[in-house]
Every structure is written in C-alpha cells, then in structure tokens.
C-alpha cells in the first residue's frame, strides 16, 4: 500500500469523522436550548443548575411546616426531578466543559435536596404518629397505614394496645411485615418501612481527578491555540497596513490616501473573513481532538482498585444496589392527641421524632440472654427490577458510610412471588445488591441497520438477550429475553438520550456497561484502547449500510488487532442466510481475511483479490454497492455519534 494512497485515505477519513465534533456542537446547542425552554416556561420550578434559584427553593421549603406525608410525597416528585436534572447535567456535560466549581455546586445541591427530602419524611411521620390513636384499627386496636406512590411506598404501624401476643405485623393486602419480639410488642413504639424506589443513601461518586486534569489540559490547549492563531493573523494584517502606508506618494497625497484607505479596508475585510474561516477550522480541529480524547477516557482501564475494603463491606465497583432503599425504623410513639372541649390538645416534643434503640445499649434489667433476638422482616421486591440470581441483602453503616452484609441472617427469596425474608439485628437503611458484572463477558453481539439513521444492537449474555434500537440521538429498549423467553419491561418503547437510557437500564438490573474497574472482576479479551476506539468510530460510520457481529477469532488475535464479521445490509428485515466476511483492523490497517467463522485454524492471510487499506471505510468501498456508500455518506452526524457512544459504553470488542 503506497504512502500517497494512505495519506489520501486518512484525509478522507478525517473529513468523514468530522461528524463527531459536529454532533458535539449540536449537543451543546441542545443543552443551551433546554435552559432557555425552562426559562420561558415560567412554571415556578427552579433551574437546578443556577445556584441562587435552587438555594431559594431549598430555603422556602425548609420554612414550610406541618406538611402531611401525602403533601411531602407530592412535593417530592419535583425534588426528585431536580435531583435527576442535576445528575444528568454532570453525566451529559463533557468533562472538558465542566469546571470544578460547577461539579461541587451541583453535587452540593443534590446532597442538600436529598437530606431535606428525608427530613421532611421524618417530620411528616411524627405528625401522623401524633394522631395514631384517632386512626386505630377497630379489630386490632393498633394503627396501620400504607401510602403508595410511583416513587415511594410507606408502611406505618403504631403499637397502641401493647398486646404481648400480637407479635406478627402484616400490612393489609400485602405480604410485607415483621415478626417482633415480646419486648417490642409491649412497648410504646411504631414501626416504619419507607421504601424509596431511588437510592439517596449511597454516596455520590466523585469525578476522577485524572479525568478533570487531562480534559482541562486539552481545553487550555484549545484556547491557547485559537488565541495564538488570532494574534498571528492580527499581526499580519497590521504589517500589511503599515507597508501600504509607507508606499504612499507625497505628490498625490490626499487622493492616494483616500484610494489606499479604500484598498486597505477591502484588504482588512478579506483578511477578517479569512481570519474567521481559519479560526473556525482551527476550533473544529481542536474540538475534534478534544472529543477524541474524551472518547478514549470512556474505554480506559483503571490501573488499580479505588480503595481497600474492610470485612463485610460492599465493594460498589463489584456490586450494584437495586430496587431502591428500604428505610427500616423503630420509633418511639410520641404523645397522642387528646380531645378537650372541642379542641385537640397535643404535646410536641422539642427533639422531634425519636428512634427507639433496639437492642438497648444497656441490658442490666433484662433477665434472659435472648430478650433481644433479631427481627424478621418480609419485603416485596420491586417489580421493575431484574435479579438474575437471588438478591443479597446489605445494611447501611452510618459511621463508616458504606453498605455491609453482616448482622443479617436467615435470608430466603421466593422469586415467583418476589418476596424476600431475612432477620436483622439492628434496624436502619437496607438495600438489595447484585453482581454488577453478572452479564459479563458477553457471549455474542450484532449490530445491523433497520432504516435510515436507525440500527438494532443485540447483546447476548449467559442470562439474557437485550435488543437496543438507536435512532438519531435516541435509544430504546426493543426487547428482552430471559432464558430464551420474552420478558416485558416498562422501559420497552421509551426513547431516551443515550446517557439517560444507560442509567435506566442499570437501575433495572440490565447492566451491560463496563466501568473503568470492570477488568478487575471480569476475564476480558484485552484490546489496545486506541485500536478499540478507532474501530468503534469507524464501525459507527459504516453502521447505516453494514451489519457487524461477534467473531470467535477476535479472542485469538493479539491485543493490537480486532476482528469482526460484516456484510452489506440494506433491508430492514434480517437476512435469512447471511454471507458474512471477516475483517481485521489494527487502527491503521484494515484487511479482509481468507478464513471464515467456521475455519478450523486461525490465519491472518489476506483474502484473494483484495488489498490492504488504512481504514475500514476504504476497505468496504472496494466491494460495497453504490447504494450502500450513498447511505453511509448521507448518515446523520447525531446518529453516528449515538451508535459510537453505545459501542464505547458496551465495549463489545473487549468484553465479548
């Protein structure tokens, strides 16, 4: 392959890959438009990215008192929406556009909103428990209340009768409940199970310092280069102006000056246009380099685990919390409302809602050793979350600020009824965890075109087959199969931006997205990050007209090369008898292989009557139809960018 052709191919590839900085410019425009739309809506809700607005919202809500649980739940929808917006800003804004002060501001606002929402639930719980005697059940004499919403489910039981025989608490029309010991059955207590379908307990993950430093360097480089180029152009124009001034004729001074001034203005105008054009080209070039740098960060493996974990502590790089958090509390029953001459009199405790310490810190007055046995809890597992194995129960350690698995015993799970029973030594927040990498490595994958700017990505794992549609700048869950059987999900048919979509899949237990630490927990087929990145970018460029798939030979070749199978695909329906061809790519050289998927031995031999190329694009151009090449050239930049982002997020070449 001669150097001249190689240079031409790389030049053309550079022009084609201009779609990535173009897509980034469109995304920036979308983010600005979202801010403007919020501004003109005037619906009273704050813009969470603007510090004064969100601080005012928090201050005003703190001042509101005597809110019922129903009112807190209703206001909580807005609060959860604000938290979600802030989290998306942190995820969707590229690291080179995020300043450190903004990260601190957004994370600080998220924590304040989370803490205030939980405080409001506690205050509203106290207000409800003051009225427990007026809400008592006629049969049992105790108070029972269940409040259900799309974001939270609250179970409340107040022990008014203190009957030592009443040891089994079951909430009506549910299987949720407790088995309490005698000492609690005879105490002035209330039991609260607040199931938040979200997790506001697990600490927010900090933005990695290395990522901030590297992207900041790139950003500074971009600004410096543009500044230097502007200064050079300005200096050049000034020198041209001085030269013309020195050449002026003294005899026709006035006329000549007038003419030269006109010429100079024309020259300056042309120079300014050239300056703007050069500046635009330079900015696009540097934006392209910045985007490339950010994409590379998505697939880089961390050099070491983040920290050392203590015994029984949950490693949040290895496990994921699913189904929200179950806040289990034993509360002291506050003084009850008493009717008096048409009024309701109630004593309000200064310290507010108080927790009942179980087991107590001192047990001197207790005769038997087993007076404080673990409390049996039965929970209903959230329907919208998929557990591929029996869930593991973890409790929150408030002092260490982490989840841990000790203090929990007798765990049993009925998968069909989705009922989980376990015994807990002390009450507090509890969650369910699943191995983050349970679906990794993948068994196979396929990416095939469906329509104009639309593809279908299929990822097959040990437990499931997930089909994802990608259209323009949106993604959608098309279908899920569990053990070869169709499984319905509330996510099916919902179009979302790639980052929102990935978050939604993870929250549903369908995690097929490796992190920078995943290689510590999964046996992977390591590929050089730069080769992998170049492959994903070029596969995305071709995805509108070509189908690609997993090849067993990708595990055989070395880390500097990737192998995939491909075929031209111009119909929406899958091809019944696909005629796959194998291609090998090393980042700067592409070739078709002589072997096929069913060959007995591996060989890098070039297929007959084919030749080497510098890019995948030019390799397929040798045998692609005219229609296929037209589809590739006319593909939307947002579509190509979305396909590339999904490939970078799943890392199919390393994790299959």
TrEMBL record:
GO-annotated cellular components: axoneme
Biased amino acid composition, Basic and acidic residues: 235-260
Domain (IC97/Casc1 N-terminal) ranges: 2-165
Domain CASC1 C-terminal: start-end pairs: 401-567
Entries under InterPro entries matching the protein: CASC1_C, IC97/Casc1_N, IC97/Dnai7-like
One GO MF term attached to the UniProt entry: beta-tubulin binding
Pfam families: Casc1_C, Casc1_N
Annotated stretches, region: Disordered: 235-279
Family, similarity comment: Belongs to the DNAI7 family.
PANTHER family: DYNEIN AXONEMAL INTERMEDIATE CHAIN 7, LUNG ADENOMA SUSCEPTIBILITY 1-RELATED
Name of this chain's protein: Dynein axonemal intermediate chain 7
Organism annotation: Ailuropoda melanoleuca
């Amino acid at each position: 392959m001669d150097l001249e052709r190689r240079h031409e191919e790389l030049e053309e590839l550079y022009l084609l890959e201009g779609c990535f900085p173009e897509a980034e410019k469109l995304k920036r425009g979308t983010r600005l438009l979202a801010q403007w739309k919020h501004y003109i809506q005037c619906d009273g809700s704050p813009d969470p990215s603007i510090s004064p607005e969100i601080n005012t919202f928090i201050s005003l809500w703190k001042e509101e008192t005597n809110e019922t649980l129903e009112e807190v739940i209703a206001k909580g929808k807005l609060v959860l929406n604000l938290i979600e917006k802030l989290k998306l800003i942190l995820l969707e804004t590229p690291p080179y556009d995020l300043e450190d002060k903004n990260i601190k501001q957004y994370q600080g606002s998220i924590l304040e909103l989370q803490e205030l929402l939980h405080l409001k639930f506690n205050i509203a719980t106290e207000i409800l428990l003051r009225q427990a005697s007026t809400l008592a059940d006629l049969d049992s004499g105790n108070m029972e209340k269940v409040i259900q919403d799309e974001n939270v489910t609250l179970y409340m039981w107040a022990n008014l009768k203190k009957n030592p025989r009443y040891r089994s608490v079951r909430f009506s029309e549910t299987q949720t409940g407790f088995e309490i010991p005698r000492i609690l059955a005879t105490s002035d207590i209330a039991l609260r199970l607040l199931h938040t379908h979200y997790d506001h307990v697990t600490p927010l993950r900090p933005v990695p310092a290395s990522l901030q430093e590297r992207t900041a360097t790139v950003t500074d480089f971009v600004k410096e280069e543009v500044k230097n180029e502007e200064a050079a152009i300005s200096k050049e124009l000034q020198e041209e102006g001085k030269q013309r001034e020195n050449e002026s004729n003294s005899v026709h001074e006035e006329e000549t000056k007038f003419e030269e001034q006109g010429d100079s203005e024309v020259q300056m105008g042309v120079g300014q246009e050239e300056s703007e054009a050069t500046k635009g080209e330079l900015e696009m070039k540097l934006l392209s380099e910045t985007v490339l740098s950010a994409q590379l960060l998505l697939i880089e493996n961390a050099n070491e685990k983040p920290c050392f974990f203590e015994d029984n502590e949950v490693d949040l790089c290895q496990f994921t919390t699913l189904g929200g958090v179950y806040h289990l509390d034993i509360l002291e029953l506050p003084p009850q409302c008493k009717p008096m001459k048409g009024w309701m009199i109630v004593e309000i405790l200064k310290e507010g809602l108080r927790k009942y310490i179980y087991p107590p810190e001192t047990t001197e007055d207790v005769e038997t050793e087993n007076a404080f046995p673990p409390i049996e809890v039965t929970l209903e597992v959230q329907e919208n979350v998929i557990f591929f194995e029996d869930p593991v129960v973890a409790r929150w350690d408030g002092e260490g600020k982490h989840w841990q698995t000790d203090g929990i015993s007798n765990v049993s799970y009925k998968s069909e009824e989705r009922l989980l029973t376990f015994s807990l030594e002390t009450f507090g927040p509890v969650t369910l965890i699943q191995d983050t990498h349970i679906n990794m490595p993948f068994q196979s994958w396929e990416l095939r075109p469906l329509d104009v700017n639309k593809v279908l990505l299929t990822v097959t794992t040990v437990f499931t087959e997930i089909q994802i549609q990608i259209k323009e700048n949106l993604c959608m869950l098309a279908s899920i199969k569990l053990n070869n059987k169709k499984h319905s999900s509330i996510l099916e048919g919902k179009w979302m931006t790639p980052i929102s979509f990935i978050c939604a899949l993870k929250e549903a237990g369908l995690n097929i997205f490796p992190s920078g630490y995943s290689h510590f927990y999964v046996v992977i087929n390591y590929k050089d990050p730069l080769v992998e990145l170049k492959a994903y970018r070029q596969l995305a460029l071709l995805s509108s007209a070509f189908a690609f798939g997993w090849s067993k030979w990708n595990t055989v070749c070395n880390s500097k090369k990737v192998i995939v199978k491909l075929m031209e695909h111009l119909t929406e329906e899958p091809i019944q008898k696909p005629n796959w061809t194998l291609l090998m790519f090393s980042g700067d050289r592409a070739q078709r292989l002589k072997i096929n998927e069913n060959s007995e031995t591996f060989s890098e031999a070039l297929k007959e009557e084919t030749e080497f190329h510098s890019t995948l694009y030019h390799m397929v151009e040798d045998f692609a139809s005219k229609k296929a090449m037209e589809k590739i050239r006319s593909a939307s930049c947002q579509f190509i960018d979305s396909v590339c982002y999904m490939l970078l997020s799943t890392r199919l070449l390393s994790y299959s």
